């Protein structure tokens, strides 16, 4: 079946511009996560969505970052006024069950801020 | 303190079994052992998990010691495509768990 998809796969932008990253989770997966991975580093949690519950935004690094999710489907991560330190791979993952650590990851969006 | 300890790297011959160790001496009774891997330039991939019994799926086998203080991930017939960084994670089952990857083991499968 279809896995988690993300778009675009690569995004190059200029400092100060806004970017929007998209994630399509696996159909039926109730949980959705956004992570960031800088070059050569581990995963950095950003935000978690679960059904209609309030999202866990505890990992968002600044108010320039925001995310939305429509029901149990598509999610978008928006970064406003991008900075060079925002350059990273942004990974989306979804999970079938609430109490599950089996997260299925998308291929990521590589963001480069010039 | 890190919950798990893994060797930083290991080589494996193509076609042979790869045995990846993980120490988790402070594991709690309700914590599971999870294994993920990350192939270069790809997102992490879930492999397998277990609580105390050994587990097997189409990708790998997981052997957990009786005292649960260590485990071994076994890739039965390593292929070149198994070259990746393998992460051992110890976590409870809870809503919204954020995965935290330690250093992992960089596995290089050689022809």
Question: Features of this protein?
Answer:
heterodimer, A: about 110 residues, mainly beta, six-stranded mixed sheet, four-stranded antiparallel sheet, 10 strands, about 0% helix, globular, B: about 110 residues, five-stranded mixed sheet
Task: Give your account of this protein's structure.
The complex is a heterodimer of chains A (114) and B (111). Chain A is an all-beta fold and 114 residues long. In chain A, the strands form 2 sheets. In chain A, strands 2, 4, 5, 8, 9 and 10 form a 6-stranded mixed β-sheet that branches. In chain A, strands 1-3-7-6 form a 4-stranded antiparallel β-sheet, with no helix packed on it. The radius of gyration of chain A is 13 Å and the shape is globular. Chain A is built from no helices and 10 strands. The mean pLDDT of chain A is 92. Chain A starts with a strand and ends with a strand. Helices cover 0% and strands 46% of the residues of chain A. Chain B has 111 residues and is mainly β. Chain B is built from no helices and 9 strands. In chain B, strand 5 and strand 6 form a beta hairpin. Chain B is globular and about 40 Å long. Chain B starts with 8 loop residues before the first strand and ends with a strand. The chains are: A mainly beta (114), B mainly beta (111). Chains A and B meet through strand 4, strand 5 and strand 9 of A and strand 4 of B.
The best one-word shape of chain B is globular
The average pLDDT of chain B is 93
Order of helices and strands of chain B: EEEEEEEEE
Strand order of the largest sheet of chain B: 1-9-8-3-4
Q: Helical proportion of chain B?
A: under 10%
Q: Provide the gyration radius of chain B in Å.
A: 13 Å
> Which protein chains are joined by the largest interface, and how many residues does each one contribute?
A-B, 24 and 20 residues
User: How many E-type strands of chain A?
Assistant: 10
Count of helix runs of chain B: 0
Spans of at least 5 consecutive residues with low confidence of chain B: none
What is the terminal-to-terminal distance of chain A?
37 Å
**C-alpha-based Rg of chain A, rounded:** 13 Å
**Contiguous runs where pLDDT drops below 50 for at least 5 residues of chain A:** none
Amount of helix of chain A:
under 10%
- Largest beta-sheet characterization of chain A: 6 strands, mixed
Largest beta-sheet details of chain B: 5 strands, mixed
